[in-house]
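User: Fold this, then the next.

Assistant: Folding the first:
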Amino acid sequence: MNDSHSVASGSGELNPDQVKQLARQRLHRRSSLRVILCLLPIWFIVSYGCGILFRDWLDANAPSVGNAPFGFWMAQQGSIICFVLLLVVYAIWMGKLDDKFHLEDEQE
């Protein structure tokens, strides 16, 4: 039995609903990659840049945090705090993308 809403046996053709869902999934994937590509440079700059590359400059030119110079503090605590904040931003942003593209977890 071959109706217009099922995949034709052996031909690999998709019905219109499946085509729409695949297009929506591709757009979601592209949008999620944009999110990642926006957040990764921030993570790199804060963790590697502030903690390693610019540590001496930050120690000399930025205010101290408690008794610790700012560059040292960024290497020890600031990069971790920034990473946790980026995780929260990522979760919220991806939740909005999932809602926009009407995608839900289908693994349950």
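Now the next one, as you asked:
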Amino acid sequence: MTSLHIHTDSNDDKVKAVALGYDQNKDEAPRVLASGKNKIAEQIIAVAKQNGIPIRDDPVLTAALMEIDINQTIPPELYRVVAEVLSYIYRIQHKTGKVNN
């Protein structure tokens, strides 16, 4: 897996999380690997933290990603915003030397 990161929405009482992954050798676009609310979201976030996976709190993007089925690629209308997030994460990872492969 070339990239894996988590989007969260912790603005209300219900925690939400979506895990995205992208393998440039086999995926045409990033895909949803996991998503959930409350306890499941907390588990997704905990696993991400344990494995050093970047987490971004983005309620609007999280809401859009929650509508996508597990293992489905993101729709073209989300390419730009997800690409911006991935670009930001790659820059941070390379600056800190923490690159997930």
